[in-house]
Amino acid sequence: SQKxxxxxxxxxxxxGKTATLTCNYTNYSPAYLQWYRQDPGRGPVFLLLIRENEKxxxxxxxxxxxxxxxKQSLFHITASQPADSAxxxxxxxxxxxxxxxWGAGTKLIIKx
Amino acid sequence: EAQVTQNPRYLITVxxxxxxxxxxxxxNHEYMSWYRQDPGLGLRQIYYSMNVEVTDKGDVPEGYxxxxxxxxxxxxxxxxxxxxxxxxxxxxxxNPGQSYEQYFGPGTRLTVT
Lengths: 112, 113
Hints:
The complex is a heterodimer of chains A (112) and B (113).
Chain A: E1 4-6, E2 11-14, E3 19-25, E4 32-38, E5 45-51, E6 56-59, E7 62-67, E8 72-77, E9 86-93, E10 100-102, E11 106-111
Parallel strand pairs in A: 2-11
Antiparallel strand pairs in A: 1-3, 3-8, 4-5, 4-9, 6-7, 7-8, 9-10, 9-11
Chain B: E1 4-7, E2 10-13, E3 19-25, E4 31-37, E5 44-51, E6 54-57, E7 65-66, E8 76-78, E9 87-95, E10 99-104, E11 108-112
Parallel strand pairs in B: 2-11
Antiparallel strand pairs in B: 1-3, 3-8, 4-5, 4-9, 5-6, 7-8, 9-10, 9-11
């Protein structure tokens, strides 16, 4: 079955630097992949979606890449700020009934 | 304001005492879903609904029931809660015909003793 791996260890980044988070999956490529942000005690909030035929997607300071050969998506936050500190989740949609398979998330800490 | 609401936000109960967690969305979304989130694990889907009167099992449906009598509401029912159902629960909705992003409620933290 499809598995998703996100770095379980927290990622500490200095303010102003680029933060890069990784989402790896096994088996076959999803129809599309989504990234969400989750703050403590709150529900996830959608950030970006990238389709299997897209290499890169951008939204303001956020960039997502999708490499079906490596079976990997990278999520970048440029010019990071302490307010970007949160847990970031990736989710894969295999194209069946809108079911999403979720990673456990990576906690990002931006230090001033 | 477009939102998904859940009630209660926090609940402590005892084993075997039936409970219902309500979920309501005001965006006229067709798709609704329940997840549980446990430390170190990704969100795991319990049940989902593609439309009114249409529900289906997710990955971890055992011990849960749902119903979808109206488009806006999707309650989660635990007929006989057990301690292994202690978790953080999220309701989500989306409109796949327009966008695949899911909108989440604020979560319900359930403790079963």
